[in-house]
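batch job 7 of whatever, protein = Ribosomal RNA large subunit methyltransferase H
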Amino acid sequence: MRIRLLAVGQKMPGWVEAGYQEYSKRLPADFQLELVELPPGYRGKGADPARAMRAEGDAMLAALGKNEQVIALDVQGKHWSTENLASHAENWRMQGRNVSLLVGGPDGLDPRCLQVADQKWSLSALTLPHPLVRVLLAEQLYRAWTLLQGHPYHK
């Protein structure tokens, strides 16, 4: 199974790159995490945020593979514990489908991305900076994988 993190934003700070890489490199080939960075829509002076979000949505929808399980990271999504994530990951693996996790830009995900999502997941009731979400997702996927392997990493 391949898990792709489709995330709006490029040129992340070094700490984001290091944190993401630390956990993604620990995952085995059959639970691979791949980061796909998508360009943010233009948000300069006088720009229309809806137009920027639509451009981000166009890029995200174009990046989706066929027959992928699509999980939208959204504030209105369900809250999952680490154990829930491990259970979902095991189900994804058993279905034999690749997974795409969608992380929007500063204004969130384009509504079209939410519509194509098979599931909506909220990481927290807190507002998290999008660069931190990359690190958090990589760490939690690693933690879920260790649970599936019987390791006590969750303690």
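notes: The chain has one domain: 2-42+49-148.
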